[in-house]
Design a protein that fits this description.
- By secondary structure, the chain is of the alpha/beta class.
- The chain contains 19 helices and ten strands.
- Helix 3 runs antiparallel to helix 10.
- It is elongated, with a radius of gyration of 35 Å.
Length: about 600
C-alpha cells in the first residue's frame, strides 16, 4: 500500500500566514539593493501607465477615422504615432526593469543558498546522521528554484497586475456605464476567491507529490552511494523494486495534482468567459442605442483583452506562488532550525597551554533509553599518550565525538587545560585537535586537495611533506596523474589503507597540540602499519594523544591504557601492568596473538 506511507501532516496545508512569513524572510535579501529595487518599480509603473493608455489612444484613432476630415488628418496621424510610442514604451520599460533587477534577483538567491549551506554546516552531527543526503539535496534544489520564481513574480506580477486591473476599472467607471466597472470588479473578486479556495484545496496533492518525489530521489542517491554494498549482496533487483514503488507513489501523487489543476483551469476560464460576455453585451447595446461610439466598443474590447489575459495569468501566478511556498517550506525550515550544539553566551577561544585533557565522570547517551558512557573519568597529561581499547559498541569512538563536541555530555565535564569545552568556542576547540578517523571519507576531488584539506592555507611543499610523512609518496608516484589524480565519490578509487594514509597526512599537516587516532591503522597491512606507527609515534611526541584502538599491538607504548566495557572503565594501566593483572586486557592480548599466529581462538576477551 504505497499511499499508506504518506504522512498526514505532509498533506495538510499550513496556515497561509505561516507561508507568507516564510516569503517575507526573503525581503532583507532583496532590500540590500534598494536603489535598484526602487528604480525597477519606477520603470514598472511607467510600463503600466503606458499599457493602460494604449486603448484610450486607440479609441481616439477609431473615432476620428470613422468620420474622416481631410483638413484634420494630421490629428489621427499624431495619435497613431503616440499609439506606437506607448506600445514601445510598455515593452522598453519592462525590459529595462528586468535588466536592472536581474542582478538583485541573482544576488538574493545566492545569499539565501549561501546562508542555508552555512546553516547546514552549523548543525550538529545528530542532525546529519538522521537526514538522507539525497532528500536534503532535492529540498535545497527545489527551494532554490522557487526563490527565483517567488521574488520575480511576487514583485513584478501580482501587485502590478492588480494595479492595472484597478486602473482599467477606474477608467470604465469614469467614462461609461458604472456596470462596466462593476462587472470588472465582480469578475476579479469571484476569480480571485475561486483561485484561492481551489488552490488551497489542491495544495495537499502538491505536497504529496513533493514528498514522494523527494523520497524516490533519496532512495536512488542512497542506493548509488552504496553501489558496492548492493553488488556484494546481489540486491540490484531489490533496490530496483524499492525505487519502483517510490516512483509509483510519485506518479499517483503527480496525476492527482495535474487532475486538480485541470479543474482549476476550467473554472477560471468559465469565470472569465462570463465576465467577457457580459461586458461585450453591454458595449454592443451601447453602440446600438448610440450611447457609445465604435471607438468606445474598440476601447472596451481592448481593455477586455488587456484585462483578462493578465487576470488569467494572475491565477497561474498565485497557483505557482503557493506551489513555490510549499517547495520552500523545508528550505526555510533548515534556516530556522537551531543547531543542537551552540557556543555558550560569551564563549571565549580555547587557550591551549600544556594541552591536558580530562574527562570527569562523563555520562552520555544518544538515546536516553540506552546509555553509552557511564561515569568515565581519565586524564591525559600534556604531551602524553592514552589509549582506549575494548569490544565494538563499548563506547570508544563516542569519546572522540564528545571531545570534538559533536555532542554534549549528559553528565560530568570534559576539560582542556582546565577549561570546560562547553564554555569555549567550537571553532577554537576543533582547531586544537587533529583527527584520524576509522572511516575516512574523501571529497570527489584531487588527491592533493584532499591532503591539503587539513590546512587549506598551507603551501605546496608543506602538503607534499605531510604526504611523505604519511608514506603516501610511493603510492602517488605510481599514479599517472600523481597528486592531481581524482579519488572518486567518497574516495572509492582508493583502498581503505590509502584513504587512512590521506587522513594521517591531513592530521600531520594540521599540526595540532592534541591528536586523536580512532582505529588509525586498522585498514593497513602489518608492514605499512609498522612504518606508519613509527611516524605516528614521531608526530605524537610532545602532543597530547588519545588513541582508540582495536589492535592492541598499536598501543603497547601508550603511557596509560583504558579498557572500556559497556560504557565503563573496567581496567587501566600501562601494557605491562595490565598483562600482569591478567584480566580483560590480558585475555584480549592473548587472543590477538593467537589470531596473528593463525591458531584457533580459545579465550574470549
Amino acid at each position: 500500500m504505497a499511499h499508506d506511507r504518506l504522512r498526514p501532516d505532509s498533506m495538510t496545508p499550513r496556515p497561509t500566514a505561516e507561508q507568507w512569513r516564510a516569503a517575507w524572510s526573503l525581503a532583507p535579501y532583496v532590500w540590500r539593493y534598494k536603489g535598484r529595487v526602487i528604480a525597477a518599480f519606477v520603470l514598472l509603473l511607467g510600463a503600466k501607465l503606458a499599457n493602460v493608455s494604449v486603448p484610450l489612444v486607440l479609441k481616439e484613432i477609431v473615432d476620428r477615422l470613422e468620420h474622416p476630415d481631410a483638413a484634420s488628418l494630421a490629428l489621427p496621424l499624431l495619435f497613431i504615432v503616440l499609439y506606437g510610442l506607448l506600445r514601445f514604451g510598455n515593452t522598453a520599460f519592462t525590459e529595462l526593469r528586468d535588466a536592472l533587477f536581474a542582478r538583485v534577483l541573482q544576488r538574493a538567491m545566492r545569499g539565501v543558498i549561501h546562508d542555508v549551506f552555512s546553516k547546514l554546516h552549523a548543525q550538529s552531527l545528530r542532525f546529519h546522521l538522521e537526514r538522507r543526503t539525497g532528500g536534503l539535496a532535492v529540498d535545497i534544489e527545489r527551494g532554490a528554484r522557487s526563490i527565483r520564481f517567488l521574488i520575480n513574480f511576487t514583485l513584478f506580477n501580482i501587485g502590478p497586475t492588480l494595479l492595472e486591473i484597478l486602473m482599467v476599472a477606474g477608467v470604465l467607471f469614469a467614462k461609461y456605464d458604472p456596470w462596466f466597472g462593476a462587472i470588472t470588479l465582480i469578475t476579479l473578486v469571484v476569480y480571485i476567491l475561486f483561485t484561492v479556495l481551489v488552490t488551497n484545496w489542491r495544495l495537499k496533492h502538491r505536497r504529496a507529490m513533493n514528498e514522494s518525489d523527494a523520497r524516490a530521489n533519496a532512495r536512488a542517491v542512497d542506493s548509488l552511494l552504496n553501489y558496492e554494498t548492493v553488488k556484494y549482496f546481489n540486491n540490484e533487483r531489490y533496490e530496483s523494486e524499492r525505487l519502483r514503488a517510490d516512483l509509483k507513489e510519485a506518479e499517483d501523487a503527480t496525476v492527482a495534482s495535474e487532475v486538480s489543476l485541470a479543474w482549476l483551469n476550467a473554472g477560471q476560464s468559465f469565470i472569465i468567459a462570463c465576465g467577457v460576455t457580459a461586458m461585450m453585451g453591454l458595449a454592443a447595446r451601447g453602440v446600438a442605442d448610440d450611447s457609445m461610439t465604435l471607438g468606445d466598443l474598440v476601447l472596451v474590447n481592448a481593455y477586455l483583452i488587456q484585462l483578462f489575459i493578465p487576470l488569467n495569468f494572475l491565477g497561474t501566478i498565485y497557483r505557482e506562488i503557493r506551489n513555490a511556498l510549499t517547495d520552500m517550506e523545508k528550505l526555510f525550515g533548515l534556516m530556522q532550525q537551531a543547531p543542537e550544539i551552540t557556543d555558550a553566551p560569551g564563549a571565549q577561544p580555547l587557550a591551549v597551554g600544556r594541552g591536558e585533557v580530562r574527562f570527569e565522570n562523563v555520562g552520555f547517551a544518544y538515546d536516553p533509553r540506552r546509555p553509552i558512557l557511564k561515569g568515565v573519568s581519565f586524564t591525559i597529561p600534556a604531551g602524553r599518550k592514552l589509549a582506549v581499547v575494548g569490544a565494538s559498541g563499548a563506547g570508544k569512538s563516542t569519546l572522540s565525538r564528545l571531545l570534538f563536541r559533536f555532542f554534549d555530555v549528559s553528565e560530568g565535564a570534559i576539560r582542556i587545560d582546565g577549561q570546560d569545552i562547553r564554555q569555549v568556542t567550537q571553532d577554537s576547540l576543533r582547531q586544537a585537535i587533529g583527527m584520524v578517523p576509522q572511516d575516512t571519507v574523501l571529497f570527489n576531488d584531487s588527491l592533493y586537495h584532499n591532503i591539503g584539506y587539513g590546512r587549506v592555507d598551507a603551501d605546496r611543499e608543506a602538503v607534499l611533506e605531510a604526504a611523505r610523512a604519511a608514506h603516501l609518496d610511493g603510492f602517488v608516484a605510481s599514479l599517472p596523474e600523481g597528486y592531481d589524480s581524482k579519488v572518486g565519490e567518497r574516495g572509492l578509487k582508493l583502498s581503505g589503507g590509502e584513504k587512512q594514509r590521506v587522513a594521517i597526512a591531513r592530521a600531520i599537516l594540521k599540526n595540532p597540540p592534541i591528536l586523536v587516532f580512532d582505529e588509525a591503522t586498522s585498514s593497513l597491512d602489518s608492514a605499512t602499519e609498522k612504518a606508519i606507527g613509527l611516524e605516528l609515534a614521531r608526530i605524537s611526541e610532545n602532543r597530547t594523544t588519545l588513541v582508540i584502538a582495536h589492535r592492541l599491538s598499536t598501543v603497547v607504548d601508550a603511557d596509560e591504557i583504558l579498557v572500556l566495557e559497556d560504557g565503563e572503565v573496567v581496567e587501566r594501566g600501562d601494557h605491562a601492568a595490565l598483562l600482569a593483572h591478567n584480566g580483560r586486557y590480558a585475555a584480549m592480548w592473548r587472543l590477538q596473538l593467537r589470531q596473528e599466529a593463525g591458531a584457533p581462538a580459545e579465550d574470549s576477551p
